[in-house]
Amino acid sequence: MNSKIFFNGKQTELSFAKIKEHVDTYGSFSGSIEAGNTMFLFNNVKPTMFDYYVHTFNTQIKDQPDTEVTFDIRTNVIKTVNL
Q1: pTM of the model
Q2: In angstroms, rounded to a whole number, what is the distance separating the alpha carbons of residues 52 and 8?
Q3: 43: three-class secondary structure by DSSP
Q4: Which residues have a Cβ under 8 Å from the Cβ of 24 and sit 6 or more positions away?
Q5: Dihedral of alpha carbons 46, 40, 76, 17, sign
Q6: Which residue segments constitute the domains of the chain, with CATH numbers given?
Q7: Low-confidence spans in the chain with pLDDT less than 50
Q8: Is the dihedral of CA 9, 53, 70, 12 positive or negative?
Q9: I need a surface site. Which of 1, 14, 69, 83 has the fewest CB within 10 A?
């Protein structure tokens, strides 16, 4: 499988189940799935739709086995910084 998964800007080895726990906690997610000439963009999606995007990612891996497929998932959380 030629794929990469990014979570909140960093490549990760977390399972989709663990990522979904974070998505459920924060209430929504955004991101993209890139596979060759195909790109899916999504923004402010409810956690109940997470499995749909995982399925889309897995379908792209199956349909384009010679293409690197990247799944970038970001929770919609604003980090605060102390000055």
Answers
A1: 0.86
A2: 19
A3: strand
A4: 47
A5: positive
A6: 3-75 (3.10.20)
A7: 80
A8: positive
A9: 83
